[in-house]
Amino acid sequence: MLGLAWVGTAAAQEATEPRAVAQLDAAAHRGAVVLMYHRFGEDSLPSTSVRLTQFEAHLDELTSGGYSVLPLAEILDAMQAGRALPDRTVAITIDDGARSVYTEAWPRLRARNLPFTIFVSSEPLDHGLPGYISWDQLREMRAGGGVTIGNHGHRHSHMVGLDAEQQRANIAKAAQRFREELGTEPDVFAYPYGEISAALRTAVEEAGFTAAFGQHSGAIGPMSDRFSLARFPINEAYGDMERFRLVANTLPLPVREVTPTDPFLRYASQNPPNFGFTVAGEVEDLRNLNCFARNGEPLLTRLDNRIELRLPEALPAGRARINCTLRAGDGRWRWFGTQFVVADQAVPAAPAADQPAPEFR
User: Fold this and answer.
1) What φ, ψ does residue 303 adopt, rounded to 5°?
2) Which are the contacts of 197, defined by CB distance < 8 A and separation ≥ 6?
3) Concatenated DSSP letters for 227-275?
4) Which residues, including other chains, have CB under 8 Å from residue 204's CB and lie 6 or more apart?
5) What's the mean pLDDT when you consider all of the chain?
């Protein structure tokens, strides 16, 4: 799920000279935080909206002098080229294209000269659905400067459940509509609902995108898989200033060899997943690493830099996250998160009343 996409294949690493490896270790500590919003001031939808007072406080924090808010493309280009980014680099992204992006977020971002990327599903715009921006408004925002557009699929669907042909068609249809309406195709993608599978990741990569984003928490760095990049979701419940400062100051936890390689759990035999990763490079004391899961605290085993987690029970159907954090000093944290997508059939049936539940091992 996460690999070494920005630093080459495993075979290439084996041939890397020691000096290059040392540079890689140093680069693994640099990174950026990508924030993800959806709606603004839509108080009836608190799970995907932030209050306007919260959003204004976020923007005041980002323009206080302690952060570098950069266009997403500039951050991705720097990581691809191995260039250093300023400390506390942040990118702002917005998903779905709700009308409040145009009426509330864009004026406030423009007034502060803050760039952002909006990931748009094209079907709501084609149908003129209420509550969404229009193609004219999207063109207006892009023409105003500082706004880049990303592909979010044509239909905002649970794409992991589609077959390969349907996945490719959904991506291609959106690209076609962007060409027709805007004259160009976006080169970045965001998975609807942040749901990723190995097959969908391959479809996105083969479509020619330069990077793709989920909705799992964490900072991104040079060792991140560029087709499974983390973002911190922001909403009313997770929009207070204490948490905002925490996530905006986060550092990447550089990892490789993540298992399982497919975060889409189709079958009961895959659930709970045997989750593990190797921390790459020199970081703080891994004995202080803490990991949390939706269904309880996992059993953590550390073998040098290899971390293995065993969950106490199967994950529930739907989306389930695991987050691992490590104190990095100066009040900051390293953060690595992942999101599994659990199909209904991946949830074991409850044991019969006269049979004991299977023992977890």
Assistant:
1) -120, 100
2) 160, 262, 263, 264, 341
3) TSB--EE--STT-SHHHHHHHHT-EE--EEEEESS--EE-SGGG-S--E
4) 171, 189, 191, 212, 227
5) 89
Q: Is there a contact between 154 and 123 (Cβ–Cβ < 8 Å)?
A: yes
Sign of the CA dihedral with 197 first, then 199, 200, and 204 last: positive
Taking the chain, what is the end-to-end CA distance rounded to the nearest angstrom?
A: 24
Residues 40, 50 contacting (CB under 8 angstroms): yes
Q: Is the pLDDT of residue 37 over 70?
A: yes
- Helix (H) / strand (E) element for 79: namely helix 72-81
Distance CA 150, CA 185 (A): 8
Using pLDDT thresholds of 50, 70 and 90, give the confidence band for residue 17.
Answer: very low
Q: Write out the E strands in the chain.
A: 32-37, 39-40, 49-50, 68-69, 89-95, 116-120, 147-151, 188-190, 211-213, 232-233, 251-252, 255-259, 264-265, 275-279, 290-293, 299-303, 306-310, 318-329, 332-342
What CA–CA distance (Å, rounded) separates 169 from 305? Answer: 41
Cα 190 to the chain's mean position, in Å?
A: 8
* Residues forming a β-bridge with 40: 50
Average pLDDT over residues 39-50: 96
- The answer to whether 294 and 318 have CB atoms below 8 angstroms apart is no
Closest CA to 339 of 249, 223, 230: 230
Which tokens is 252 given? 């990447």
pLDDT per residue as tens digits for the range 215-239: 999 999 999 999 999 999 999 999 9
Paired strand residues for 290 = 325
29 falls in which pLDDT band (50, 70, 90)?
Answer: low
Is beta strand 306-310 parallel, antiparallel or unpaired with respect to 264-265? unpaired
124: tokens are 């709501």
Query: 266: burial class by Cβ within 10 Å (0-12, 13-18, 19+)?
Result: middle
CA distance 125 to 106: 18
